[in-house]
C-alpha cells in the first residue's frame, strides 16, 4: 500500500510543463524523420528512394538485407542498369538488371526485359499473364548505390512486428522518463 | 564535456564520416580488348540470330579495396525503322575477384538474339562490352567500350 502511495505521489509531482516539453521533443523527432524521408523522395525523384533487398536473385552483388539507394531521372532506360519495378498485381517491387531494350522511334516508349543476375532465366515468368515486356511506368527507379546489412532491421521488424512495438515502447518510455 | 565517452563518440563519428567519403570517391581506369566472330541465323516469327562470340577482356584495373564484383556483359546495338535503339544482351558474367578479371572465352550467345520484326538481314550493328562495378559499399558505376562495323548476312542461313 505504501508503495502505491509513493508511486501516485511521484506521478503527481511531474510538472505539466516538463511533460509537455518532452511530448513536443518526441513529436519533433518523428516530424524530422518524416521531413527527411519526403525530401529524399523529392531529390531522388522516386516514390521509394530507399529499398531493402528481400531475395537472393541478384547475389552475390546484392544479398538479402542490403539497402539500395534509388534515383529516377528522365534519362532513357538502357541495358545493364539495375532497376526496381512493380508488376501489376504484385505488392513487392523487384530489383533486377535490364538485359534487353527496344525503344520506339516515334513515341520514345520502350520495351524492357529484365533478369536477376543469379537467376537462370529472364523475368518473363514474373511478369503479369501475357506480358512480354516492362514499360517505363512499371519502373520506380534505378539503383545507384548501396549499403550492406543495414536493411536487416527492416526485415526483422516486418517479419516479427512484436519487436517493432517493443522498440517503440522502449523509446517512448526513455523519452518520457529522461530528466532533461 | 570532457569525459571519455564523449570523446570516444566524437572520434567514432569522425572516423565513420571519413570512411563513407572514401567509399564514395573510389574510381579507376581500365583497358580491355574484344573481338567477335559469328556464324548462323534462323528465322523464327521474328528474326533470330545465333552467334559464336569470342571475347577477350582485361578488367583487372577495375578492382580496388572497395570492389565486391564486376558485372560484364556484351550487347549488340542496332537501329530499325520501328525502333530507334535495340540493345540485346547476348552474354554476361559475374567477375568476383581480380584474378578472374582477365579472361578469354569462346561461346555461343547465352541469351537469344531476337528482333522485334524482320529487320536483321544485312543489318549493321555495333557490339558493346559493358562493365558494371558493384562496390562493397557506396556508389555503383558503369562504363562501356563500343566496337562498331559489324554486319549481319544479307540472307538467312
Automatic annotation (TrEMBL), chain A:
It comes from Brassica carinata. Residues 36-106 form the Peptidase S24/S26A/S26B/S26C domain. Keywords: Hydrolase, Membrane, Protease, Signal-anchor, Transmembrane, Transmembrane helix. NCBIfam families: sigpep_I_arch (TIGR02228). Catalytic component of the signal peptidase complex (SPC) which catalyzes the cleavage of N-terminal signal sequences from nascent proteins as they are translocated into the lumen of the endoplasmic reticulum. Specifically cleaves N-terminal signal peptides that contain a hydrophobic alpha-helix (h-region) shorter than 18-20 amino acids. It is a single-pass type II membrane protein. One of its GO terms (biological process) is signal peptide processing. GO terms for molecular function: serine-type endopeptidase activity; signal peptidase activity. Its main location: endoplasmic reticulum. One of its GO terms (cellular component) is signal peptidase complex. InterPro entries: LexA/Signal_pep-like_sf (IPR036286), Peptidase_S24_S26A/B/C (IPR015927), Peptidase_S26 (IPR019533), Peptidase_S26B (IPR001733). Its EC number is 3.4.21.89. It holds the Pfam family Peptidase_S24. It catalyses: Cleavage of hydrophobic, N-terminal signal or leader sequences from secreted and periplasmic proteins. It is found in: Endoplasmic reticulum membrane. Belongs to the peptidase S26B family. Gene3D superfamilies: Umud Fragment, subunit A. It comes from the Eukaryota. This is Signal peptidase complex catalytic subunit SEC11.
TrEMBL record, chain B:
The keyword Membrane applies. It is a single-pass type II membrane protein. GO terms for cellular component: signal peptidase complex. It comes from the Eukaryota. InterPro entries: SPC3. Keywords: Endoplasmic reticulum, Membrane, Signal-anchor, Transmembrane, Transmembrane helix. It holds the Pfam family SPC22. GO terms for biological process: signal peptide processing. It is found in: Endoplasmic reticulum membrane. Essential component of the signal peptidase complex (SPC) which catalyzes the cleavage of N-terminal signal sequences from nascent proteins as they are translocated into the lumen of the endoplasmic reticulum. Essential for the SPC catalytic activity, possibly by stabilizing and positioning the active center of the complex close to the lumenal surface. Belongs to the SPCS3 family. This is Signal peptidase complex subunit 3. It comes from Eruca vesicaria subsp. sativa (Garden rocket).
Amino acid at each position: 500500500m505504501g508503495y502505491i502511495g509513493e508511486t501516485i505521489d511521484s506521478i503527481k509531482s511531474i510538472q505539466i510543463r516538463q511533460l509537455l516539453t518532452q511530448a513536443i521533443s518526441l513529436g519533433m523527432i518523428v516530424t524530422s524523420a518524416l521531413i527527411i524521408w519526403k525530401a529524399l523522395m523529392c531529390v531522388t525523384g522516386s516514390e521509394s528512394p530507399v529499398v531493402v533487398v528481400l531475395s537472393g536473385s541478384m547475389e552475390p552483388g546484392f544479398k538479402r538485407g542490403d539497402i539500395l539507394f534509388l534515383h529516377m531521372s528522365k534519362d532513357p532506360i538502357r541495358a545493364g542498369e539495375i532497376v526496381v519495378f512493380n508488376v501489376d498485381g504484385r505488392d513487392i517491387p523487384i530489383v533486377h538488371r535490364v538485359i534487353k531494350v527496344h525503344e520506339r522511334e516515334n513515341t520514345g516508349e520502350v520495351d524492357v526485359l529484365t533478369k536477376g543476375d543469379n537467376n537462370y532465366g529472364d523475368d518473363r515468368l514474373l511478369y503479369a499473364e501475357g506480358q512480354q515486356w516492362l514499360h517505363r511506368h512499371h519502373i520506380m527507379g534505378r539503383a545507384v548505390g548501396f549499403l550492406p546489412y543495414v536493411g536487416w532491421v527492416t526485415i526483422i521488424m516486418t517479419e516479427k512486428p512484436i519487436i517493432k512495438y517493443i522498440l517503440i515502447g522502449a523509446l517512448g518510455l526513455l523519452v518520457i522518463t529522461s530528466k532533461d | 564535456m570532457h569525459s571519455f565517452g564523449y570523446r570516444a563518440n566524437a572520434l567514432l563519428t569522425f572516423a565513420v564520416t571519413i570512411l563513407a567519403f572514401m567509399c564514395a570517391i573510389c574510381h579507376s581506369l581500365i583497358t580491355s580488348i574484344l573481338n567477335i566472330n559469328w556464324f548462323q541465323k534462323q528465322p523464327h516469327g521474328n528474326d533470330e540470330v545465333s552467334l559464336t562470340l569470342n571475347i577477350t577482356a582485361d578488367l583487372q584495373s577495375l578492382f580496388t579495396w572497395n570492389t565486391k564484383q564486376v558485372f560484364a556483359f556484351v550487347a549488340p546495338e542496332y537501329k530499325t525503322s520501328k525502333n530507334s535503339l535495340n540493345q540485346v544482351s547476348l552474354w554476361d558474367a559475374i567477375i568476383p575477384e581480380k584474378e578472374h578479371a582477365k579472361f578469354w572465352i569462346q561461346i555461343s550467345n547465352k541469351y537469344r538474339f531476337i528482333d522485334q520484326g524482320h529487320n536483321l538481314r544485312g543489318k549493321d550493328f555495333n557490339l558493346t562490352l559493358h562493365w558494371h562495378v558493384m562496390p562493397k559499399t557506396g556508389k555503383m558505376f558503369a562504363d562501356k567500350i563500343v566496337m562498331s562495323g559489324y554486319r549481319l548476312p544479307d540472307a538467312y542461313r
